[in-house]
Amino acid sequence: MSGRQGRSEGAFLVLIYKEITVDTLSFKTISANKATVNKEWVVVDATGQSLGRICTKVAKLLRGKYKPNFTPHVDCGDHVIIINADKVVLTGNKWNGRIYFKHTGYPGGQREITPAQLMAKGEDRLFRKVVKGMLPKNRLGDKLLNNLYVYAGSEHKHEAQQPKSIDINSLN
Fold this sequence. Notes:
Belongs to the universal ribosomal protein uL13 family. Part of the 50S ribosomal subunit. InterPro entries: Ribosomal_uL13 (IPR005822), Ribosomal_uL13_bac-type (IPR005823), Ribosomal_uL13_sf (IPR036899). One of its GO terms (cellular component) is cytosolic large ribosomal subunit. By secondary structure, this protein is an alpha/beta fold. The chain has two domains: 29 residues, no CATH class; 132 residues, CATH 3.90.1180.10. It has a four-stranded parallel beta sheet. It has a three-stranded antiparallel beta sheet with strand order 1-2-3, with no helix packed on it. A two-stranded antiparallel sheet has the order 6-7. Helix 1 crosses helix 4 and helix 3 crosses helix 4.
């Protein structure tokens, strides 16, 4: 019986090689899609956290990279709620020393803004700008950014979704 194929059962093939049965269905890679994805709601506390370090982990949560069925072209990430965004930390003189650039599209339309000015306009703007730079630069990245919710205080309006609170430092 060594070296020949066994019977075909359904949509997969059973190979018998040296008296070992191998199920070829187990070799199939399962790709996530909109129907099979399990999206959860997660709360992250930004109190005392460094902006860049928390945003890299939030971007991974939004992308779904911590899940075993991660698929690059599918929105398989979680909905992330960031609370206490006003208590985030930037080391050194980055509040006024770091400069973000944008362009209006008109001649001479280059504008610059610091993180302190972005925070004054709204704490969600700073987080969105930083996380957006860590997501794919395509339609999927825009869709993933819509799953991010940022609040200055410890209260948020998503209690109906029953979000689970996670420690962002426990993620790698």
